[in-house]
Amino acid sequence: MLSKNEQKKIRLLGEKKYRSKLGLFIAEGIKIIQELIKEGYTFESIYSSKPIDFAPYKLIDKPTLNKVSYLTNCSGIMGVFKIPESSHSYKTDSFSLAVDSISDPGNLGTIIRLCDWFGIKNIYCSSDTVDCYNPKVIQSTMGSIARVKCHYIDLIPFLSKYESTVYGATLDGKTHYHNLYDKKGILVVGSESHGISTEVLKKIDQSVTITPKGLGTNAESLNVATATAILLSEIFRF
Asked: What's the structural domain count of the chain?
């Protein structure tokens, strides 16, 4: 049985201001919860509709969990985890990614998953980018949030002092094919609707464009997560 206080807390954690205030976030699905525990995340509570053997838990029937779940189809297991303390020590000794004003939770979650796939440990996010602990972002990462750190910072001074090449995904840059990339560089990708903001664009050393192969294509742009996947694949090809 979930108490009224537990139900209220779970619902409140859907909002960023309460996640920040309480220092907690929600994760659903056995794979995601196991990944978080494996990587050292501390949990406050785990609720499961079935017995589990990897952590202490509270047995809750699935219909009750479904009432507080953020998923369309409840997975039957939910964890309340502590948000790790923010680090102001930024490592720039390997290739990194910066995201500017990404608003869609699914896109950010997919980008975090892509970074995990390509071995990128740090994502530098503009302050208006969607919160990485949003339940929809957590779900979209499929556990990769456990291994990729999102830093919410002012991108302009950060990129101004960046010691390696700053690349920007734009529609009017150098073709992404056969380009050599600095191993300690950083790729900036912009919002779904407006791309990289004007002020951040000024900090770009080299613009990169995904060259379309279709003749006479009418597509205006690519989804930001799709574009990130294509560019990271090319960057790590050599």
From this structure: 2
Both tokens of 51, joined, read 């017995």
Domain hosting 65: range is 4-82
DSSP code at position 83: P
Label the pairing between strands 206-209 and 166-175: parallel
Each residue's pLDDT tens digit, 158-198: 999 999 999 999 988 888 887 789 999 999 999 988 899 99
Tell how strand 43-48 and strand 58-59 pair up.
parallel
> Does 90 map to a domain?
no
| Shared domain check, 168 and 51 | no
Handedness of CA 217, 220, 222, 223 (dihedral sign): negative
Indicate which CATH number applies to the domain containing 53: 3.30.1330.30
**What confidence tens digit (pLDDT) does each residue in 38-77 have?**
999 999 999 999 999 999 999 999 999 999 999 988 999 9
What does the alpha-carbon distance between residue 58 and residue 63 come to, in Å, rounded to a whole number?
Answer: 15
Whole-angstrom distance, CA of residue 24 vs CA of residue 18: 8
65 and 126 assigned to the same domain:
no
Q: Model's pTM, two decimal places?
A: 0.93
DSSP output for 156-215:
HHHHHT-SS-EEEEEEEEEESTT----TT-EEEE-BTTTBS-HHHHTT-SEEEE----ST
| Range list of H helices, the chain | 4-12, 16-22, 30-38, 62-68, 105-118, 135-141, 155-160, 198-201, 224-235
Beta carbons within 10 angstroms of residue 145's beta carbon = 28
Q: Which is nearest to 190 in space by CA: 85, 102, 95, 97?
A: 102
